[in-house]
Structures are given as C-alpha cells and as structure tokens.
Amino acid sequence: MAAPRAETAPTGIAVDLRGVRRTFASDGDRVEAVGGVDLSIAAGEFVALLGPSGCGKSTLLRIIAGLDHQDAGEVLLEGRPADARVDAGERVAFVFQDAHLLPWRDVLGNVTLPLELLGRPAAESRDEAMAGIARVGLADAARRFPSQLSGGMRMRVSLARALVTRPRLLLLDEPFAALDEITRQSLDDQLRALWAGTGVTVLFVTHSTAEAAFLAERAVVFSPRPARVVLEHALDLPADRGAELRAEPRFAHEAAVLFAALQRPER
Amino acid sequence: MIRRRLDLVAPPLATFAATTLLAELAIRAMRVSPLLLPAPSAVARAAWTQSALLLPAFASTTRCTLVGLAASALLGILAAIGLASSRLVERAFYPYAIFFQIVPIVAVAPLLVIWFGYGPRAVVAAAFIVSVFPVIANTLAGLRSVDPALRDLFRLYGAGPWARLVKLELPWALPFVLTGLRVAAGLAVIGAIVGEFVGGGGLGVVVLGAMREQRTDLVFAAVGYASLLGLSLFALVNLASRLALRRWHASEEGG
After folding, report:
1. What ipTM was predicted for this assembly?
2. Is the model's pTM score more than 0.80?
3. What is B40-252's CATH superfamily?
4. Closest CB from A67, A100, A145 relative to B248
5. Residue A39 β-bridge partners
6. How far does B200 lie from chain A, in Å, by closest CA?
7. Residue A226, preceding bond cis, omega within 30 degrees?
8. Phi and psi, residue A36, nearest 5°
9. Inter-chain touch A102–B171, beta carbons under 8 Å
10. Chain B closest CA to A263's CA: distance in Å?
11. Per-residue pLDDT reduced to its tens digit, A53-91
12. A159 CB near a chain B CB, below 8 Å?
C-alpha cells in the first residue's frame, strides 16, 4: 500500500484574466456574456465573484476551468496560458450548483471517481477518498447512496469529490444556492475551515452579498450581462470567522458595501 | 413481506379466477359451439392432453424468442451507442432505424424464409426485427439525456470516450434500456410466432395446425402458452430492473 501523501498544504494557483470576452450566438442573436474582464487573483486567495443572476459570472468560471473558451483575451494560470491545460484535472476542481453525483455509486464511489478518471492506483484512491469523506463529516455515510442522503449531505459529498484530488484551484458555482439557510451557513463554515487548512485558491460564485462577505477575503462585484468588474473590495473582517460574526455591525457594513455596488452597476 | 406479496398477487389472480368461472358458466348456459368458443375447462383439457405437442412447441418458441430478444438487446444497444456518437451519424442513420418500427413483419416473414430457410433461424430473425427498435430508441434517449454537468466533470478530469461510455453514459442510460427491453420482450414473442407461421416450428405451427383441424380448444391452449411466455419475459425484465436499479433510481424506489 502506498504511503498517504503528506498533509502539507498544496500551494494555490494564481489566476490572471486579461480582457476576457465571451459571446454566445443563438438563433442569429449574439449575446455577450462576458464583456472584457481584467482580474488578478493571488495564489491562495479566497475570492467571491458576486453578481446578479445570469450576469455571466458562471460563464467566466467555466472559462477558467477550461469547460468553455473565451473569444478574446487571456486566461493565465500560474502565469501561463491556460489553453494548453492538459493536466487541468490535476490542479483544478469544480463544484456545480447542485451536487450532481452519480446515483448508482455510493458516497465512497462518488468521491473516488476523480482519482479513478485520473488513473490513480485504486488502493491509494480509496484511502484518500475515505479521508476526504471524513473531513466533510460523512464517514458514517460512506456506503450510502445519493438517494438516501439529504440535500446538504449530497453537497458535502460533492465538496469532498472536488477536494479529493487536492486541487490547487477550487471553483465553486453558486454551490449552496439550493439549500436552506441553516444548512448553507454550516457548509459556508466548513468551506472556510477547509480553505484555511489547505491554502488552495478559491473562486466562489454567488449572488448573495452575505455569503460573499462571510466567506471571502476579497469580493469582486460584476455588472449585469455582459459581466464587467464593477467593484473589487477587500473585506475588512477577521481571518477567523465564526457564526457570531454574522451578527456584528462590521459584517453588516461590508455586506452593505457589496449590496450598494450590486445595485449601482454603473460607476 | 409475504403479506405484501400476497396483497400484490391476490387481486389479479382473483380477477382471473372470477372471469374464467364466469366464462365457463356463460358458455355452458348459452350452449356456444366449441368450434367458436370452447369453455375454459375444454381449453384446460386440451392443454393437458396435448402437452406432448404443446410443451416442445413452447420450448422451441421460447428459445427463438430469447435468442431474438438477446440479439435485439445487444445490437440495439450497440446501434444506439453508434447513433449517439455524433449528430451527423444520427441524422444519417436514425431514419433507417425507424424501418424496423414500421416494417410489417407479416409481409417480410416470407422473405426471411427465402434468406434463412425454414426453421429457427428465420424465426429468430423475425423476433429480432420487431423487437430491436424500442431498444435502439430508448437507449438513444438515455444516452442523450446524460446530465451535462456530469459530462463537464468527466471532461475536467480528462476522461476518454471509453471511460465516459462505461462509467457515465451506459449506467445513466440503463433505466431507459430496461424500459426498451420491457417493450421489446412482448414484441419478440409476436415476431417469433409470426415467423413460425411461415418458417415453421413452435407454437405458431401448432396454432395453424389446430386451426385447420378445427380444434379451437387447442388454438386457445397454444395462445395461452404464448401469453405465458410474453408474461414471463415481461416479469423477468421487471425483476432485472428492480435488482439493477433498486438503490438509485426513483422509478424503483420504495419497491
């Protein structure tokens, strides 16, 4: 059996966007989804991408993941063009709006999937997956199937699946939007803790100002379609964030700053 | 558990018993000619006394149906995988797959005898032709309905076409495949018997012979065996579906 890899934090990836544009053509109409975005994200940073629904922020995230392509501009990961990302799966992980698990695989099987597809040895993958499942607090449910889990548990499985490859860039597309408030806050807490423990770069797309303020070090506010950066705002909040922070005035203040930028997209 | 099984099986059995009894009484009371409509007791008697004729015929029809159905499953799934590989392939070939759906098997059966000769091969071909289309159509629908987010996930981790097919597309399509097979099972029996009308052998020949001899009770007995075959195949596919999907698919949940 292979020795488990060291728990040392993988260094996050720096992401640079330079004049990124994306236009979709449908039925002869041309819809500009992303309209010239410049953005620099430092290695290991937790950045919230905030914008109204359908503004193109998800498209931007998909372009960074290599699941879509820009029509103009450059996407640089660690300073190199991301187009030649043959090893994207080794470095980048993506969490979707819903859990999107394979219903015919149990929790362990779902979390092992990325390692399996990357061709990692089975025994090592299984240990890594079990450790990842334990990290999101589902060790007892490893043999259960998605249909036997609650929505919040399914999302935690999805999170464990994304983290199992020890990605250096974690992209999340409104991952907790469909969950109830309590579950969502508890997952926010877990995500912060996971990020603090690993040093991975996190890009978190959301349309909730409170979620953005609670989670991120920095928030980027986008305009309605086509997405352009309206505000880049470093959040003046302590690194150690507990549930009580949500009740504090400075938290409310930061959320209000973001909300104001969302409301007045034209500077 | 046993109690629930009983709740499941008892009502249709009671309906069957009541209907049979009612038919028996009505046919006797009205003195219907046994040439037109034999009483259930006469059919049962024919099924029993002619079992030396009926049982081998039943076995032969069953064999041909199973081989035809297996060919439909295998070739139908392969064809659907081919059709799903690209929109261009689908546009080029799918219209001709529909040929299997619209072909009048009664008209084509003599052709099958010309090609395959008298005997089981023509019968198997007939069972295959009428039962392959539901497998193709349902499998294709299943392959086409794979969650796009899961496709993205597989792409992100660099999965090749083979891994995608085996670990994502085929399992995703499985409930659709089973739905197709459920329809195909009934059709395969029809195809086999029509094939036997022309190609010889099995229950189809028993039905034709009994008709010529004006043994209506024997016709009914043969039809009963054919129905039993269709019903058993249907139940078999249902069982397979339950075993395969019980843990994850909504259509079998709580079953």
Report:
1. 0.87
2. yes
3. MetI-like (1.10.3720.10)
4. A145
5. A17
6. 44
7. yes
8. 70, 75
9. yes
10. 31
11. 777 888 889 989 888 888 888 888 887 776 655 566 678
12. no
